[in-house]
Amino acid sequence: GAVVSQHPSWVICKSGTSVKIECRSLDFQATTMFWYRQFPKQSLMLMATSNEGSKATYEQGVEKDKFLINHASLTLSTLTVTSAHPEDSSFYICSARDWAHPEGNTIYFGEGSWLTVV
Amino acid sequence: QKEVEQNSGPLSVPEGAIASLNCTYSDRGSQSFFWYRQYSGKSPELIMFIYSNGDKEDGRFTAQLNKASQYVSLLIRDSQPSDSATYLCADRGSNYKLTFGKGTLLTVNP
After folding, report:
1. pLDDT in tens, B80-98
2. Using one digit for the tens of pLDDT, what is the confidence trace for A77-115?
3. How far is A37 from chain B (nearest CA, A)?
4. How would you classify the pairing of strands B61-66 and B11-14?
5. DSSP code, position A56
6. Residues of A in contact with B103 (CB under 8 A)
7. Fewer C-beta neighbours within 10 Å, C or N terminus of chain B?
8. Do the Cβ atoms of B7 and B22 come closer than 8 Å?
9. Taking the mean position of all CA atoms in its chain, how far away is CA A3?
């Protein structure tokens, strides 16, 4: 079946630095990918929608200059957390829709990336 | 603002029993829903989606949708300890921007 892969699985960075997380669709093309964030014992919250070849659209309250999204190809979207601070420590998860799936409504999630800012 | 409500649990059932998980949603115009399973520290795994009123079965899982009552449920038959996880209900929304409930923690006791 379709697979969405994220890298790195976990990362520790120093406060003030930037960190990049990659999201790849391995066996299908994804014109749209989604980035979510999940704090401990809370549900997933959508941060932004990543659109191939165009600017990402951000949810209300999400700083676009802090969370840079690039979707340069049909299989890769990246999220860069700039000037990271401890409060950005969270589980970041991407997802993508497999448009070619027979049922057309299949959204798969990547494995997630744990970010710890120290 | 869409809202999806789930009982946070924990819901505890014995092995072999039927686990029933429930979800209500606020947007009467919502058309389809997903159920995901999430193990601690892992990302969600798709169980199934449903968009028609009534039941949809896939193996041990049955999803039920009642649009008039704005209610979605998931039944797990012959529950196994490996089913112990948090179950997330999600409203598909427009353009597949999912709105998740907070999830129900299910524990299946051997």
Report:
1. 999 999 999 999 987 788 9
2. 999 999 999 999 999 999 998 777 666 667 889 999 999
3. 11
4. unpaired
5. -
6. 43
7. N
8. yes
9. 14
